[in-house]
Specification:
CATH class: Alpha Beta
Distance between the termini: 30 Å
CATH topology: Rossmann fold
Helix content: 25-40%
Structural class: alpha/beta
InterPro entries: AB_hydrolase (IPR050471), AB_hydrolase_1 (IPR000073), AB_hydrolase_fold (IPR029058)
GO molecular function: hydrolase activity
Protein name: Alpha/beta fold hydrolase
Shape: globular
Number of strands: 8
Keywords: Hydrolase
Order of helices and strands: EEEHEHEHEHHHHEHEHH
Amino acid sequence: MSTNDTSNESVITSYALAPARTIDAGGITYAYRELGPKGGIPVVFFVHLAGTLDNWDPRIVDAIAQNRHVITFDNRGVGASTGDVPDDVEAMADDAYTFIRALGFDTIDIFSFSLGGMVAQDLVVKHPELVRKLVLTGTGPRGGKDMDKVVGVTYYDILRATLTRSDPKEFLFFNRNATGKPAAKAFIKRLHERTVDRDTDMPLKGFRTQLKAIQKYGRSAPSDLSKLTQPTLIANGDNDRMVPSVLSEDLHRRIKNSTLVIYPDSGHGGIFQFHEKFAPVAAEFLAG
């Protein structure tokens, strides 16, 4: 059972104030947050490599939570959730399924970013009946070209960030130019708007295991995405160094009922740099 009764609470639509909750399922305690009006189909957010509950841009979460029940969660071994991170994306999808079913949902919408988008694809391929609508951002398909190079780029940018005492996301998610640098600083600042009850950081071992899983995903046989019938919104920046932007175009070709949005002069975190444009697009797509 969930740890909190929410029946008498007023509706919270600010991610900075979303209550932290836990639920036990399959021997794992999953940490999650929820906000927005209850009832109807929830939007479940699938986070990126090394991401925890504190890594979602509140400008995007809040925009969707105005009218939708939003759930963010730490998958197994991530943040405040117990257990060990699996070294396989499909196993991460199985854990996500366990979590969602434990909450009692049989239909959800998914908002995903980066590694979260890979997990989301594996989930929807295995359990197509679970997902009504799909948002895939900064991600690519299983077996996609150069997907396995994520690991090298990640370590290189972490080194660059360490040398300049910056957050690695400033290098990994944004262009290092006159538009990218201030967008990066603004994004990192937004991630710290929540001041109480923050999540546990990702342990280094779990981070390395996630990288291993991404590499395996990149080198494995492609999934048959032609089976996907869900309306799908695909978005990225035009210069994604982590998960090359061409992979978003590849996804768009493979998923029949999909829309592709590419933002100019932006990288892996294009949706965060262009949150003022993207948040309403995502909210409208998920509203239908």
